[in-house]
Design goal:
18 strands; seven-stranded mixed β-sheet; alpha/beta; globular; 595 residues
Length: 595
């Protein structure tokens, strides 16, 4: 049987790649079809139909792309697909009955992990009632959900994910890997816990050391992979001592298998970080940690159910920075009960700890999460399946959030955003430091560190301007808030352009340093980047196109007001790649036409 699996492939999509290898192990043929944005619709439809599949599976992970996938389902039906169309992933799972009822293009929705379910579906297309964990319409059109049997406990039994091509950095191929599934915490904003709980079985499962070592060794020797991106929700174990022992066993196993110099990227909670574990991982090649800081107010951490303290955060940053590891993190500065004093705590953290790239946004109420349940119980939940929304209880904090969300929209959420770019510069520097430390001059190191600090401190300063305005204004004065937001966005975007020029020069410096190394040309120290605020920045990158503003007017109370008409949910920068590029082109064409 032919099965087409469709999903985002900006980096290796391990969800569909694990399913693909499991299906192939059962004798089926599988085609992986990239669908990274709406612009990919027609090409993805053509590739899918050319494969002539009997089953098409859509990897619907993110709420922000829910409508795109529903539109894709309609389009592929219009193009002639008559087989079974199934959706999977957290978004689809939490909205299963909604999808099969409101979108008849879907035949079914998978509730949990898809390896066993998809193999069972392929054997029972005419008897859907035999497929555990499947939501579908029965013969009368009524949604039915088969009881799940739980996600697989023994991850070692799963075939390794299907591999095709690899991206690379500095000519070093990179592969995504999983050493565990699930998480051993239940944060209020995260749907991971709820998704795994939905189908039963253990929520946190780990692979054996032997299995991990075997896969990494195979990727190293057979495919030349040198960079391993671990996509575990949390790479660490609950017990720090056992975590260090596990990492030591992986290190020793790789050495026995002849695996040489590699680089690792992982995700971690601050309370997982210990000097013992990081020392072992440093020997393994750890170069990047995405650290779950989330909030630096003790009250904010409690409201988000993080079960960690500010002391954990500061200790983790100290350890990781002592080992000079690339650390990036996100601040969920806003949650339903945030007050202005807690915003100020997070702002002061930005100012005091500006060494590492970061981003900031609001904690979103995804289906099944503690936040969604809380807001629904309190009658504060807005929106619907394609994106829940809410207003902060404190009017001044809500005003701060709306102004910041508007003013920093490009900097925080676009593929061209400065905060992502800041992470990219440090990411590239740290990779070069891992594989070619002899190439890095102190001038280059200083330029990288200074760029990161300048970016962070500029964000800190712009946010402080918003804080001072909000602390003194009438939060119900929509005219004043909108006017200030316009001015704030102009300042943020202008400073972003200037900093982007500096960052581009540093990236070029890094690339040129490596190119000269592989070409056998003696290295040299180029002129340093132009200082922040130089006039040359205004000619290198065109200004972003700020769309016309159509603000909604206050209605019956603060809770219903959206002053700025922009997406409240923080949208991953990759999702907006094509969309922002198209908006920029359209805006430039409009300017040219008016002239």
């Amino acid at each position: 049987m032919n099965v087409a699996l469709i999903g985002a492939e900006l980096e290796e999509n391990l969800a569909i790649r694990y399913i693909a290898s499991s299906l192939e192990a059962c004798g089926h043929k599988v085609e992986i079809v990239p669908f990274n944005s709406e612009q990919d619709t027609e090409s993805a439809v053509r590739q899918t139909l050319a494969f002539e599949p009997q089953i098409v599976g859509l990897s619907m992970i993110f709420t922000s792309r829910g409508r795109e996938f529903c539109q894709f389902a309609k389009r592929i039906r219009e193009a002639g697909f008559r087989g079974h169309l199934i959706a999977g992933g957290p978004f689809a799972s939490f909205n299963c009955e909604f999808l099969v009822t409101e979108f008849p293009d879907f035949n079914s929705v998978a509730l949990g992990e898809g390896e066993e379910l998809m193999c069972c579906l392929a054997e029972n297309l005419d008897h859907l009632e035999r497929v555990p964990g499947l939501c579908y319409r029965d013969d009368s059109g009524v949604p039915r959900t088969n009881p799940p049997v739980g996600n697989p406990d023994k991850l070692d039994d799963l075939p390794w994910p299907k591999r095709t091509t690899f991206h690379s950095y500095f000519d070093k191929p990179i592969a995504s890997v999983l050493s565990s599934r699930g998480c051993w915490r239940d944060c209020a904003f995260c749907s991971i816990h709820a998704w795994y709980e939905r189908v039963g079985g253990k929520e946190f499962r780990i692979r054996s050391v032997d299995s991990i070592v075997a896969e990494l060794s195979d990727l190293y020797h057979r495919h030349g992979v040198r960079i391993f991106n671990f996509q575990d929700d949390n790479f660490f174990l609950p017990n720090p001592v056992k975590a260090a022992e596990r990492f030591s066993a992986i290190r020793d196993g790789l050495r026995r298998n002849g695996v040489g110099q590699i680089a690792l990227a992982v995700k971690a909670r601050p309370d997982s970080i210990t000097e013992e574990s990081i020392r072992v991982l440093d020997e393994l090649g750890l170069f990047r940690v995405f650290l779950g800081v989330e909030n630096t107010s003790e009250n904010g951490l409690r409201n988000l159910n993080r079960r960690q303290t500010v002391a954990h955060i500061l200790n983790a940053l100290r350890i990781l920075n002592d080992f000079e590891i690339h650390v990036a993190y996100n601040l969920l500065m806003f949650e339903p009960d945030t007050v202005l004093d807690e915003v100020l705590v997070n702002l002061r953290f930005m100012g005091r700890y500006s060494e590492n790239p970061f981003n900031f946004c609001r904690a979103e109420a995804y289906p099944g999460t503690g936040l969604e349940c809380k807001l629904r119980f309190e009658g504060r939940l807005l929106g619907g399946p394609f994106g829940y929304d809410y207003r902060l209880k404190d009017p001044r904090s809500e005003a701060f959030h709306q102004i910041a969300n508007y003013a920093f929209f490009d900097r925080n959420f676009s593929d061209y955003g400065l905060h992502y770019f800041n992470m990219q510069v440090d990411f590239s520097y740290q990779l070069l430091r891992r594989f070619h430390p002899d190439l890095l001059s102190q001038s280059l190191r200083a330029a990288v560190r200074n760029f990161i600090k300048q970016t962070n401190l500029d964000t800190f300063e712009r946010c402080c301007e918003i804080y001072d305005f909000v602390a003194a204004c009438d939060p119900a004065d929509g005219v004043a808030l909108r006017g200030f937001a316009r001015d704030a966005r102009v300042r943020v975007d202008q400073h972003s352009r200037e900093l982007m020029v500096r960052g581009e020069r540093i990236l070029n410096w890094l690339d040129d340093t490596y190119t000269r190394k592989v070409s056998g040309i003696p290295n040299y120290a180029p002129a340093p980047p132009e200082p922040f605020g130089s006039d040359s920045a205004k000619e290198d990158i065109p200004p972003s196109v700020i769309p016309g503003l159509e603000f909604t007017r206050p209605g019956s109370g603060w809770e219903g007001v959206d002053l700025f008409g922009v997406a409240q949910a923080p949208v991953p920068y990759k999702i907006f790649r094509a969309r922002l590029a198209e908006e920029t082109r359209t805006g430039e064409e409009a300017v040219c036409a008016s002239q």
